[in-house]
Structures are given as C-alpha cells and as structure tokens.
Amino acid sequence: MKDFTYYAPTEVAFGKSSEEEVARLVKKYDGHKVLVHYGGGSAVRSGLLDKICSLLEEGGLRTVLLGGVVPNPRLSKVHEGIALCRKEGVDFILSVGGGSVIDSAKAIACGVCYEGEVWDFYIGKADAQAYLPMGCVLTIPAAGSEMSDSSVITNEDGDLKIGYSNNLSRQKFAIMNPERTYTLPPYQTAAGVTDIMMHTMERYFSHDDDMSLTDAVAEAVLRTMKDCIFTVLKDPRDYRARAQIMWGGSLAHNDLTGCGTTGDWATHQLEHELSALFDATHGAGLAAVWPSWARYVYRENVGRFVRFAVNVMGVTNDYTDPEGTALKGIEAMERFYHSIGMPVNIPELIGRDITDAEIDEMVRKCSLDGTRAQGQFKVLTARDMQCIYRNAARR
Amino acid sequence: MKDFTYYAPTEVAFGKSSEEEVARLVKKYDGHKVLVHYGGGSAVRSGLLDKICSLLEEGGLRTVLLGGVVPNPRLSKVHEGIALCRKEGVDFILSVGGGSVIDSAKAIACGVCYEGEVWDFYIGKADAQAYLPMGCVLTIPAAGSEMSDSSVITNEDGDLKIGYSNNLSRQKFAIMNPERTYTLPPYQTAAGVTDIMMHTMERYFSHDDDMSLTDAVAEAVLRTMKDCIFTVLKDPRDYRARAQIMWGGSLAHNDLTGCGTTGDWATHQLEHELSALFDATHGAGLAAVWPSWARYVYRENVGRFVRFAVNVMGVTNDYTDPEGTALKGIEAMERFYHSIGMPVNIPELIGRDITDAEIDEMVRKCSLDGTRAQGQFKVLTARDMQCIYRNAARR
Lengths: 395, 395
What we know:
The structure is a homodimer.
Chain A (H helix, E strand, L loop, with lengths): L3 E11 L7 H7 L4 E6 L2 H5 L2 H11 L3 E5 L8 H14 L3 E6 L1 H14 L6 H4 L11 E5 L11 E6 L4 E6 L7 E4 L9 H19 L7 H23 L4 H13 L14 H13 L3 H16 L4 H11 L9 H18 L6 H5 L5 H11 L15 H12 L2
Parallel strand pairs in A: 1-8, 2-3, 2-4, 4-5, 5-8
Antiparallel strand pairs in A: 6-7
Helix pairs in contact in A: 4-5, 7-8, 7-9, 7-11, 8-9, 10-11, 10-15, 11-13, 11-16, 12-13, 15-16
C-alpha cells in the first residue's frame, strides 16, 4: 500500500437552495471584485448567469464578466482573462459552468500571479506559487474540476492539450444545484458520467490493490453512476438521480477514490490527443479508447479486472476462468457504453475511419516524440500507444 | 433529499512515513510555539512523543508539553491547557493521541481565544469565533475527531458530558501511521471499530433515504470495518487491516457518510450518560445501547433496517417478511458485537445490573430534566429514553 496525502478543502454547498449562498461565500474567502467566468449558451439562456450576478451585486460585490470559454478550453482565452483581471484589479474568480470554465479559471488564477507565460506551468517549466482565490457554480457534472487540483488547457499553437496539477488551484467553494443539470442533453449527460466513472477507474486499476476501503468506496461510486445514468436518460428532471451524478462527479475526482493507490491515467492521456485533434467530447473519447486499453493491459493483473467485472459490472465470477471473467467485464462495459449512447471505438467517435497518419501524429504527441511513457498499470511506450490506437481504430 | 454542505479541509498525511512531515506541516499552518498535547501511557512508552518533539525541535519549533488527558476528557485539564497556552504564548496545538486528546485540544484552542468560560460553548451559552490552529498525530482510530468538527468534554462538576460542533475546530492536518495502532489492546481496538461504525450508522438511519451514493459509501465503510476487525484481532500487526480501520475512522466522521441525510445521534446521546456515570469506554457503551435503540425504533422505517440487514450484515432478504429481515439484521449486529468482545447490554458493559435510580438519573440528564428530546429517526422523549435504557438493562 502506498503512503498517501488526502486534501480536499473545497467547501461544498449542495442542493436546491445552494446558489443563494454565493455572495456570502465569495466574501468569506476575501473576494471583493469578482471575475465571473462562463462559457455561453446555457448559463446565459437559463438565466443562471443573471441570477448569480444579481446575487453578487446585492451582496455588495463588484463584478467583471468574461464569457466564451469553449470545451477543451483555449490558452488564448486564458491570456484574455489574465489581462482582464490585471486591468480591472480582480481579486476573486467565480466560474459559472462546467469543467472547461473551471479549468480556464484555474489557469487565469495562477497566470495573474505570475510574471512569466502561464503556459510554462503546463509544460513543466515552472511551478505556480500563488493563485487568486476561486469558487464555482457548477452546471455540468463530469470533469470533477470543482474539487480537483488539476486543469487541462489546449494551446491552439500545435493543438497541444496538457494538464497541470497544483493543490493551490483547489476551489474555495463549489455550489452545486442538481436542478441546473436538467437541461443537459443526453449525449453530454452520458459523456459526463463516462468521465466521472473513468476518473475513478483510472485510480482503481492499480497494482496497489490492497487498500480495500478505497476499492469499496470506488465501487460504490461506479455502481451508483451506472444506475443513475439510465434514470436521467429516461427522465432528465429526476432530481434524485441528477444529484447522485453531480455529487459523484466530485467524489470521483477529489482523490477520495485514489487513497493508497497509484493512478494509471493512460486512458486520459490517450484521449487528450483525440480531443485535441478532433475536438471530441472528452467523456466520449474516453469511452472510445478504454476498451482497447483494457484488452491490451488486463493480463498485467487479471485479478483486478475480475474484481471490476464482478463488483462493478455484475458479471458472475467464473472461478475456473479468471481471464474469461475479466474479459466479460470489459465486454459488459462496452455494452454499457453503447446503451447510454457512447462510442466504443474511434470510428464511432469521429464518424469516419481514422488514418494511419492521424494515429502516428497522436502517438508522437502523446509520447512527446517517443520520449515520454504513459500509464502505471502497464507502462506504455510509443509502440504500445500505437497498438492501442490501432485496436481502437477498428469498428 | 436534504440540501447539505460538505467541508472537510483537514490535510491528511497517511502511512509509514507520515510522521516525518510533522514540522513541515506545523510551519505550513503558521505554528511557531507548539503545545504538544497527549494522554500518557502508550505515546510515551512507544517513544512516539519523544520522536515528535525531536522532529519539531529539529524543525526549529519551540514546544511546551501538556500530558495527562484521560478518556472522557475533563474540563479541568482544558482549563489547565488554556492557562498554559496563555502563559507560554503558544500559537499552535499538536495532539498526539486519540479522540480524547484531540477533543481536549479543541476545547483548549477555543478557550484560549475567548475571554469567558470555555464551558459556555458546550452548554450553548456562546459560539466560538476563533481557535488556535491545531494538528494531530493520531494513535487511536475511533472517535474520528481528527477530521470532524466536534468535541466532547466531561465537566466533573455533575458528571456532565457534552459535545460541541464548530467548523473552526477542524484540524489543519492529521498524521496517521497505522503502525502506531499495532499495540492497541483488543478491547480498545474493537471499541474503536464499534465507534467508527456507529458514526456512520448514526447518519445512515435517516428518513432522508434517497441519497443512494451516500448510502453506498456508508455501506462500503461499514462492510470494510466489519471485515478488518477480525483480521486485526487475529494479527494485531496486520498493516493492511490496521490501515483500513484508521482511514475508516476518518471517513466515518468527516461527514462524507452523511451527505444529504439527517443524522440521528440518539445512541450517542444515550451512551454519553453511560460513560459519564460509569466511565465506560465510549465504543463499548454504544454497543451496549444500540440493539435496544434499534428494536425500539425500527418500525419507523422498516425498509431502512432491511437495507442495513442485507447490504451491511449480509442477511438474506426475505421479501415476504421485511420486519423479520430487519430484526435479523439487528440480531446479526449483536452476534458481531459479541464476536469482537463487545457487550450488547448494560450489565455486560458495567459488570453488574444497573439500578432503577441510575436509569432515572441518566434519563434526567439525557433529557435535561425532560426538556430535551433526542434523535431524528424517532424523536425520543424522556419516556422513550427510559424504555430503551430499561430494555438495555436486561441481560
């Protein structure tokens, strides 16, 4: 078992009345002039943005707005945010949206406090020492950025999509009202649940398989997400199921499900190249890659995949055939993905076959020209990445 | 489903090497002159106290020692600590021990920052506005005080044992090395696990029974504790099982297992009178009261007790007889308590029959002379408390 640290200081206000807390919470964490950061679309149309701005102003806070964050958030928007914060003397960033908005806010928050180029943090040239304080009003359960220490930014120069983790980037508070997720379309909802489950699965598939409490909690999260997605696809306004998914998104990525294990994260890394190249929805990209990853690596620890098959996917354990049971778990996951409208390979994700040249480009970037391995459950070389992408390229 | 807040900011350093972090962590949270607070006995004998003091001093920190905290920690010791902190200019309190030591530290930490009498907070006359920062080196997994917002202090004048909750009392950090629990005697280990499980059960038995993720996590904690206690009773030096219990103690009481539910806490309140009157071990007292509480209240929500019986205790669900299944769950819990050396009634706890006068005194104090009800699953009047104590008085 690995020694671990666990640090999840974000104050969560969860429920139908949680938005009413926004001004009190910003003031509690020393905000006076607030950058309200958002994407566009639904936060505006639903009236949420107006409501939040009104609540802040009624609470005596000044606001500056910056919208237009897109999925796979762009470095150019981060630069715009940094300049705006400096010009306006912003001392708090409030995100209204999902993971892309919060990730963009994290990059702005450290960029404001740094004299150099913020991209330095993402390419490992520097480590951020300070952040503006941040909070969020979450509208999309998926990325888990509301309680995590990480953010992922896409640099349009070269389509580079890179993550960066720093404990200082944790949100001071997260406001979560499940009603705000009622209008999420089925595809986004399913992709979100896929991302949530994958955050837990990346931690679960570990050779440190002796932390039984962490495993039991992880399985509880996975089974609950698996149940609830069918309920919300049937009835998008089911508060109870929406609430489990929203809270599950936070628990899946606030490190709770990884205490004592070594995360793998290869599927995430392989997917980053897909969404950078094709601007695919992250959760759907994960579903398109995972089955190929799983079949490529399961022999590294068959027992782990058996446990997943039995405890998460409900496969009957054939004690005479562990490998067969493990494979049935992967097949069950594919059926689950299809049943919620997710792809299980790259052609299903992008709507056409992928070319060898595109695979080679993804391998090149994912391996940093062959200099970087990925994963822990099985350490993947550039050659392994190519095999997994090729397997995922088959219909 | 209830709206909820979740706030568990304590930085946890967990594992064999965690103690080495102590000086760094105290300095991170602005400590310079540290009150090292402990009980006696094992922390001294094991050399842990010496090690921690050496690490602090090597880290350039000054230390003041205050030992002698007893189980069911006393207000007189709290007063002694407040006076010492003021005299010495202490700016950080580090507890080395279990829940009693940490609870005592919490009372000292708010007492130092308050001009009035610290007991005011416990009797509801005032609310603490400031605490000295605190951290802990945990040696007994049980009370969960290392991540909770609460503390329980016994005022020797009148044997009053009262709890007080305040978010400001959360530890800045908690250092947890499971090896430090190897020497805990079997009775203390079992009582600790009983306390841990009860912290989750107090939250689990709720009429807000629609938060399925919280329920699934709670059941994961309960089942894991139930498995691991047998392993450590057989082999006290089993690191893996000790680690699950230690981490389980924190997760059971950092509010994770209560997100969206209304806690009951009647068993804890009924037990407080037992340990105040007989100085009983808290966990053992809980085991002595719970079966009588459960049989008295289960009809309020039979389905909840069925779920507990099936998902936690492994009882086969007899769908034709929910009440029978619920009762089998309570019986299974009694067998579990006996199998780990815990009592299931008051005579087994105190080694003799309890008198009617003693019961009347406990009812009087638990109900504040008939003016205070207890519990949520079933709201208990003084008359209900008397019935439960009387049922628990039978061998």
